[in-house]
Amino acid sequence: MIGKDRAVFIDADDTLLDFKACAKRSLDEACEAFSLTLPDNALSVFFKINDELWRSLERGELSFEKLHEIRWVKIFDALGVDFDGPTFESVFWKRLREIAVKMEGAEELLSYLSKKYVVCIASNAPVGQQDRKLTEIGLIKYVDHIFVSGDIGVAKPKREFFDGCFASLPEIVAGQTYMIGDSLTADVRGAHDYGMKTIWFNHRREDESQSCADKIVYKLVDIIDIL
Fold first, then answer.
1. pLDDT value at 180 more than 90
2. Least buried of 1, 160, 180, 190, by fewest C-beta within 10 Å?
3. Residue 117 confidence (pLDDT) above 90
4. Backbone torsions φ then ψ of 189, nearest 5 degrees
5. Cα–Cα distance between 90 and 72 in angstroms, integer?
């Protein structure tokens, strides 16, 4: 099939999956389960602290287990809420693993890419999570491979993560691939340093002065005009 000697790697959370919407629903349901009312800024505090923890994980300073142990401890401390963090995390994380919401344009993009490229999910999520979510929202049919750090043993953006991916793609070389993702560190920088071409999905309109991406888009469907 034309083009199938080339691959596109795509991040899942906050790229194909609307992480903000998933997190909000998970937070609401966890609060309901514990009859807990949080301050109005709880979601914004969650995103700030969660991003900080994931950056630490990407740098190898934090394990997944530790992240789940301390995430809501830190958030509740910042909010001034007296509640057990690990207990809340257990329900919040369960719902976050189950809830899936498509990012606008995700299906249109994947449908287009699947006709031209080997489509690979590249994610730091736990084993099985992205498969379940992509199946639930009808996107799995466009995907050829799912690579997650839990299977490979290291997280993006480490070189070893991409080594693990390409070990399953012996006919494809890095220079023939694109990495698409929302994270300038995990997705763009990691893939760029590995020799891949990169597209930064900057839907949060972050500062672009430090970007090394080959292309920057603000909507997923804009990638169709590039690839």
1. yes
2. 1
3. yes
4. -65, -45
5. 10
Same domain assignment for residues 106 and 86: no
pTM: 0.89
Domain end (from 60, 75, 98): 98
The string of DSSP letters for 124-150 reads -SPTTHHHHHHHHTT-GGG-SEEEEHH
Whether the pLDDT of residue 19 is over 60: the answer is yes
Q: What are the backbone dihedrals phi and psi of residue 9, each rounded to the nearest 5 degrees, phi first?
A: -100, 135
Counting the structural domains of the chain, the total is 2
CA atoms within 13 A on the CB side of 20: 9
C-alpha dihedral, 57 to 65 to 126 to 31, nearest 10°: -100
Spatial distance between the Cα atoms of 65 and 70, rounded to a whole number of angstroms? 9
Question: Quick one: average pLDDT of 217-226?
Answer: 98
**What average pLDDT does the segment 7-25 reach?**
96
